[in-house]
Structures are given as C-alpha cells and as structure tokens.
Records
---
Amino acid sequence: MAGVFTFHVVSPEGNVLKEDIEFVILPGVNGELGILPNHAPLIAALDAGVIHYTINGTKTKLAISGGFAEVSDNKATVLADTAEFGEAIDVPRALAAKERAEKRLAEKSADTDIRRAEYALRRAIARINAADSKRD
Ligand code: ATP
C-alpha cells in the first residue's frame, strides 16, 4: 500500500500499537519529529509528550513519558517508558501529579530535585493534553 508505513509502539507493559499509518509526530528531546513514509533512517531520544499519528485521515493521541524511536525500512518503532491512549488516562490523577510537581517547583526547597519535578510536570501535562479530545 502506498503512502503508509508501519508504526510500532512498545512499553514495558507490552505491545501498545502496531498499525500501518500515514503520519506521526514524535516528541523528540530536541523538538517534534514528523515522520512520513520512506523517512530516512533515524534514532532519536524522546521526551515526555504526546505522539500524534494519523490513519485514514483520523488522528489519535498517545501520551508517553519518554523513550527512544528508531526509523528504518519504512517502519517507525517507539520504545516508550510508559504509554497511554487518551481515553485510558485518569485525568484527576494527572491533574494531581501536575499540581504536586508545580508545588515542588514553586517551593524549591534545598532538597528539591528540580529535574525530577520538571520531568513529572512534563509527564502530567502530556497526559492532560492527550486526554483532551478538543485539543490537537
Ligand atoms: P503519578 O504521580 O500519578 O503516579 P507518574 O508520572 O509518576 O504519575 P509514571 O511513573 O509515569 O507515573 O507511570 C506509572 C504507571 O502508571 C505507568 O504504567 C503509567 O502508564 C500509569 N499512569 C501514570 N499516570 C497515569 C494516568 N494519569 N492515567 C493512566 N495511567 C497512568
């Protein structure tokens, strides 16, 4: 089939997704990575963020908390630390995680691990955004 490539997402919990897709945007640590069919080979580290992919023109969102992506031979593989589809996300839990992280960052006590709190905040924001069907 022309115009598609295989998109495979795996997490420690198992296979998350394996589909032929038209387009995906990945949250690379240095910015978003857009992948179309026959993309050049690539290995990239991913940040906590939202994966957006398109099948038959329909867009779907998947929150990940970081990982790695490999693209080769018309196939994109993501090894994600965690992965949740929008509808599987517990929004109150993510909002509570966001609030906790924001509080830690605002207080910035001597023993606050800033990078850890910032990462928790990015994970929470990714989940909230992936769960929001009104947001692209
Ligand atoms: P929390 O502080 O709420 O535990 P966290 O960012 O520390 O959030 P992770 O360590 O990234 O959580 O994930 C632990 C497990 O819980 C993973 O399996 C992940 O998929 C799941 N998970 C975390 N937050 C949510 C959520 N809001 N909705 C659904 N699953 C979640």
Note: The first strand starts at residue 5 and ends at 11.
---
Amino acid sequence: MNLARIRDALLPGNRRNYPIYENSDIEMLRKAAAFNSQLMDMLREQVKPGISTDYLDKLAADYITGHGHIAACLGYKGYPKSICTSVNDVVCHGIPGKAILQQGDIVNVDVTSIVDGWYGDQSETFFVGEVSSEAKALTQVTFDSLYVGIRAARPYCSVYDIARAITRHAESRGYSVVRSYQGHGIGREFHQEPGVPHYPHESTRKSIIVPGCCFTIEPMINIGAPETYIEQDGWTVRTKDHSLSAQFEHQILMTTDGPEILTLTQNGPQEGHCF
Ligand code: MF3
Ligand code: CO
Ligand code: CO
C-alpha cells in the first residue's frame, strides 16, 4: 500500500473512484501529453486570418497519424473530425469546416491524441490577427483562471477547492463560468472520474484529488451569461446570448509535491503570460 492509498482510506465519506497512476503508467501519461503539446506547438504557428478550420484539422490529423498515433476525437461518439475548433461565441466542440478564420476572431483549438493507449488532452485560445480589447481581456481572464485552478490543486484537495478558485477569479472580474461542460479524469480513457466542474458544486466537496490522479482543468469563460445551447449538428456548443467565450485546458498529474502540468508546451503561453 502506498501513502496515497493509506491517506485515502483514512478519510471517511470521501470519494475516490478513479485509477491512481504510478511509475510506468506515469511515464506513459507524460509521453502522451508531451506528444499532444508538440502538436499544439505546431498548430499555434498556423492560426492566421484566411485559413479554414478544416485546414487546421487536416494538419493535426496528418501530424498525429504521421507519428503513428490516433486522434482521439475522430469517431468519438460519432464526432466527425480530429480536433475541435471553437470560434467566438462557440464555447466548445466546434466542428472544423470550410469557414475561414477572420481577422479579429478568437478560436479555441482543442486537441486530444492517443499514444500507445494513453490520452493527452489540452486546448488553447488563439487570436486571429489583431483582436478587440474585449476579446483580449476575456482570453487573459480565462488563461489566468486555468492557472488559478492549477495552483489551488494540492495533494488531497477537493475538486470543489479548484472550482471555487476559478469561479472567484472569473466572476470577480465580471465574467461567467460555463456550467454545462467540465474537466475530467483521463488516462487510458478519454473521460473518466473525477468529473471536474469549474464552478463550486456541493457534490464535489468530497471528491478528493490524491497523488497519482490524472485529470484536466479546462474552464470555459463567457463575457455574458453562462448558459449554452447545442446547434443542429449535435455538437457545436454556443453561448445562448452569443457573447464571446474562451477556454484553456491542461492535463494535470497530481504528485506528492503538487500538480505537474503534463501538457506544457515549449513555445506557448507560460504561467503569468500577458496577452
Ligand atoms: N477535448 C474535449 C475535452 O477536453 C472533448 C472533445 S470530444 C469531441 O474533453 F468529440 F468533441 F471531440
Ligand atoms: Co478535456
Ligand atoms: Co480537450
């Protein structure tokens, strides 16, 4: 029995219904997430006015399969493309298509790959050329909310602690936190326990993150109201009031020393980045 399991067993009433990863599992997770972050580094350079979201999808698909890996989204519950591209008022799960990215748009690119059976999952919001000060401010608050959540994540914290920190940060600045979609445990499956809502839901007070837990934090933050709806295509999620929405996602491994960000990129925005 390792320390995590002992401590876990000592906390009556707490939930822990996800796998605890150790040693060789952690190496596999690191490898999958590192590959995924290199893919993100490649895509970041390609986002500019005049390209289609389909073009980004093709680049990602070729990169993943070219390295002998699998695009997790392709065919996932019938999803038709390899990545998600969510433009402006699209909150998440935007399907790449012929639409051309325009100067002033913001686009979240969410990529998930499977490397030797292990998942890597992350997303970033990009500016298409110069964007409005409103779009910049939203993106900054969303990026900072992700890091506020990561820093709130400590060994044996609850999911509630993470969400409370994120929501405090975003709401105190006048933004809203999307409730209908959440972060998730991840490993040999795309979505597993623990569920990670980004707003403080009572039920998550007893959902404890112990060392060896691997999960995502992926807040979606809106300028307007938090409500969303799904388009006719069955996937595209938009803000009900059509206000702008942004998102950032990292995959985190909880260790005895604190959170390890598995999907950190070399060339992307680092903690504290100013947009
Ligand atoms: N990558 C998303 C997440 O962070 C899930 C996308 S599922 C898809 O959990 F089917 F829409 F691609
Ligand atoms: Co995710
Ligand atoms: Co994702």
Note: The first helix runs from residue 3 to 9.
